[in-house]
TrEMBL record:
It comes from Mangrovibacter phragmitis. Residues 20-130 form the AB hydrolase-1 domain. Keywords: Hydrolase. Coiled coil: none annotated. One of its GO terms (cellular component) is membrane. This is Alpha/beta hydrolase. InterPro entries: AB_hydrolase_1, AB_hydrolase_fold, AB_hydrolase_sf, Epox_hydrolase-like. It holds the Pfam family Abhydrolase_1.
Length: 263
């Protein structure tokens, strides 16, 4: 269970007042990815933006401490300490979206709703061999080279060149253990929930409002029946990269606020 694991010291910022939102970035990233959302969201809500373990300014834990359950344990601890007796809305990008979904499944008493911004969820089973191959390459090759090659497929024509440079440069500052070890468990192994039936089973088990933003029509069509809460929805976002919230910040901010206001 995630809540029984040793937790890391996390760097976070806390601004605004009202309903609590916790922003969770993706793999090989940090909370700066939410710089386009924080100024707008903090006008309406209390916004806690976190650097996950081994990322940004948070504590680097030893090798072997970078499964999704390890990441979830840190956020469960943060909610309990920062929001005693309260629930939070979890907003996660990429890996952060999967962590949010896992927390909602394990500790629904702590989660009010989840917003997944192209979260690591709902991929067709046909992607499994590619994810397996990538996880293996991350173990034996230079992780920055492997990741740089992979994320070229994640961009859109609308993505500014500066974002691509930023993403590439910050990889060189990543500690080795979280860089090599975090990706695989998201999609590979008996506990994975990023692909196929593993993802479907997790999302069907949730009874809270869930908003998933993705980039592919086929994925959206497959995922929509998995959510039971009447306020849940899956939207397709075009003209954006995997970092939807950077390429279309105003639209994403408006969509988040509108959805939350209707809950």
């Amino acid at each position: 269970m995630a809540q029984d694991m040793q937790t890391a010291r996390l760097f976070s910022t806390d601004s605004g007042n009202g309903r609590a939102l916790i922003l969770l970035h993706g793999w090989v990233a940090d909370s700066h990815d939410w710089s386009w959302q924080i100024p707008e969201l903090e006008q309406h809500y209390r916004v806690i933006a976190v650097d996950l373990r081994g990322h940004g300014r948070s504590e680097v834990m030893p090798s072997g401490a970078y499964t999704p359950d390890h990441y979830a344990a840190d956020i469960i601890s943060l909610i309990q300490k920062a929001l005693p007796g309260q629930k939070a809305v979890l907003i996660g990008h990429s890996m952060g979206g999967q962590i949010a979904a896992r927390i909602a499944s394990e500790r629904p008493d702590l989660v009010d709703a989840v917003i997944s911004v192209d979260g690591s969820l709902g991929f067709d089973q046909s992607f499994a061999p590619l994810f397996q191959q990538t996880a293996e390459r991350l173990q034996r090759e230079d992780p920055a080279s492997v990741t740089s090659e992979m994320i070229q497929n994640f961009y859109d024509a609308a993505t500014p060149a500066a974002f691509k440079t930023w993403h590439s440069r910050r990889m060189f500052g990543m500690p080795e253990a979280p860089f090599r070890e975090s990706f695989g468990p998201l999609f590979v192994g008996p506990e994975q929930v990023g692909v196929g039936q593993g993802s479907e089973a997790l999302l069907r088990s949730l009874n809270i409002p869930f908003y998933h933003m993705c980039r592919y029509v086929e994925q959206a069509i497959a995922m929509r029946p998995w959510f039971s809460h009447p306020k849940s929805k899956v939207d397709v976002w075009e003209h954006a990269s995997h970092w939807i919230m950077k390429d279309r910040p105003d639209d994403v901010n408006a969509a988040i606020i509108d959805w939350l206001n209707k809950l």
